[in-house]
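Regression test case RT-17, inverse folding.

Input:
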């Protein structure tokens, strides 16, 4: 495996002590593979991604347990300098909001070229040529003319393409995309997802796609890990998960996909809201919202039960869930 996360735990430091926000998360992604990590906001998916990238704010967040193996090394035990080197060249991240991730006072061409100058020792002219090439590769029209333009002069979709260009510039082995299309309209979302899938194939890179929307990952992901209250609750190959989810929460997410009518923050097919990390219910954390919940669910936390080869579910009644 290119990346293997084992039993990762992350806690936020608060005035009242440490609050666990990621609890024993295990994930893996191989070269050329796409893993989608799915969950509502507060599920711990972005914090997991930040822990892998080594960009958790410290304080208030810190890794409290687990291992993150990347290309043979445990990133939690290497020096800060080695971690920075990995992050610069072998692992890259794409953020939701390209406008705040790009530097507003530098042209996009300069920002792209700088990657080649700093990490590859390219001359100014070479680096500029590489920047233009990359802009063409991510389909920025009139790249030669626009290389000197600033981030605010591009549309949201174009800015996201530029962020993707920056992420893949140094040919990283792993790219983590955190809600890369959430701020875009539906047509542009599909184009950006296609571009990511194409680049992943071309460069055989591993891709982790963090999202709250099952609708955007169906065509691009190989496997999906569904997170709830800081834990993975279902992990499955994408086709099997879509055909018959083995966890009531996944089923609720799937049933919410085409509907946009719920109140803000609410999934139409699942009643209630996810718990705060300060008040995670005992037993199965999903029990207050679960249509299949019974007494045992309020007391016993379900482990990740094996469902089939490569598939697991943290539901005591996964067989019932899978039958629908
Ligand atoms: Fe629902 Fe119980 Fe399964 Fe949790 S363990 S998802 S509450 S049926």
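Golden output:
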């Amino acid at each position: 495996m290119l990346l293997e996360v084992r039993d990762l735990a992350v806690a936020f430091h608060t005035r009242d002590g440490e609050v666990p926000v990621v609890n024993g998360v295990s994930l893996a992604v191989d070269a050329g593979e796409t893993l989608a990590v799915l969950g509502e906001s507060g599920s711990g998916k972005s914090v997991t991604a930040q822990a892998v990238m080594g960009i958790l704010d410290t304080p208030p967040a810190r890794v409290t347990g687990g291992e993150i193996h990347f290309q043979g090394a445990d990133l939690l035990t290497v020096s800060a300098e080695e971690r920075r080197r990995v992050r610069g060249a072998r692992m890259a991240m794409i953020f939701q909001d390209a406008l705040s991730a790009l530097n507003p006072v530098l042209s996009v061409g300069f920002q792209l070229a700088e990657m080649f100058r700093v990490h590859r020792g390219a001359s100014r002219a070479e680096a500029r040529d590489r920047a233009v090439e990359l802009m063409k590769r991510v389909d920025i029209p009139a790249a030669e003319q626009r290389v000197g333009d600033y981030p605010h002069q591009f549309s949201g979709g174009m800015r996201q393409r530029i962020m993707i260009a920056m992420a893949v510039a140094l040919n990283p082995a792993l790219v983590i995309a955190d809600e890369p299309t959430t701020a875009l309209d539906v047509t542009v979302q599909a184009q950006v997802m296609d571009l990511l899938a194409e680049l992943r194939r071309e460069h055989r890179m591993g891709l982790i796609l963090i999202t709250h929307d099952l609708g955007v990952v169906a065509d691009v992901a190989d496997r999906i890990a569904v997170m709830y209250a800081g834990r993975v609750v279902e992990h499955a190959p994408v086709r099997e998960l879509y055909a018959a989810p083995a966890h009531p929460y996944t089923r609720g997410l799937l049933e919410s996909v085409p509907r946009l009518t719920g109140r803000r923050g609410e999934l139409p097919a699942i009643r209630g809201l996810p718990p705060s990390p300060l008040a995670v219910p005992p037993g199965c954390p999903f029990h207050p919202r679960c249509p299949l919940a019974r007494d045992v669910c309020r007391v016993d936390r379900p482990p990740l039960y094996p469902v089939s080869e490569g598939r697991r579910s943290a539901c005591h009644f996964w067989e019932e869930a899978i039958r629908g």
